[in-house]
Amino acid sequence: MKQRHEIFFNQLEKIRGYLLKVADVAKEEAEVIPKGFKNNIRWNLGHVYLEQYMWIKNVTREEVDVPNEYDKWFGWGSSPENFTAETPSLEELKILLKDQLPKIKETYGDKLEEEFEPTEMWGMTTIEQVLIWTNFHEGMHLQAILDIKKCMNA
User: Fold this and answer.
1) Count of H helices and E strands in the chain?
2) Any idea where the DinB-like domain is (predicted)?
């Protein structure tokens, strides 16, 4: 793997670590939807996890190891209203997120620059481009979690 890709994965892991640190809340706090918000902390974590894989799937057109129900629970436009008894808990999501980047690195680390057909949305053609986008996306949801926590403590 190229040195710049090692540095890139290091950055992704640092941001993921910060997300998990910020999301280190009690189970009950993870379920709170403050006034003016559509989702809670648990939903934001599940959404970050799901979207990382969905964007990879969108570019590679390969199946990813995510149960179909995740889209119903955490996909774009979903909400905690869609949660069922089978929806992953806060702790389960934290484990999935902690394990996700090493799996992506192992699976795609040597394929970051491999060209695929352009995606319908935004024309991305490589895993590297996807990970740059999803890193930004993760930051948006990190901020959403920070905002939720701020409202809970107000």
Assistant:
1) 5, 0
2) 11-145
Class of domain 3-152: mainly alpha
Q: Is 19:97 a contact under the CB 8 Å cutoff?
A: yes
pTM of the predicted model as reported, rounded to 2 decimal places: 0.95
Q: Domain ranges in the chain?
A: 3-152
Which residues does 141 contact at the CB level (< 8 Å), separation at least 6? 19, 44, 45, 47, 48
Cα dihedral 110, 50, 139, 76 in deg (nearest 10): 130
pLDDT tens digits for range 27-82:
999 999 999 999 999 999 999 999 999 999 999 999 998 999 999 999 999 999 99
Among 102, 96, 107, 54, CA closest to 77: 54
Q: What is the pLDDT of residues 138-147, one digit of tens each?
A: 999 999 999 9
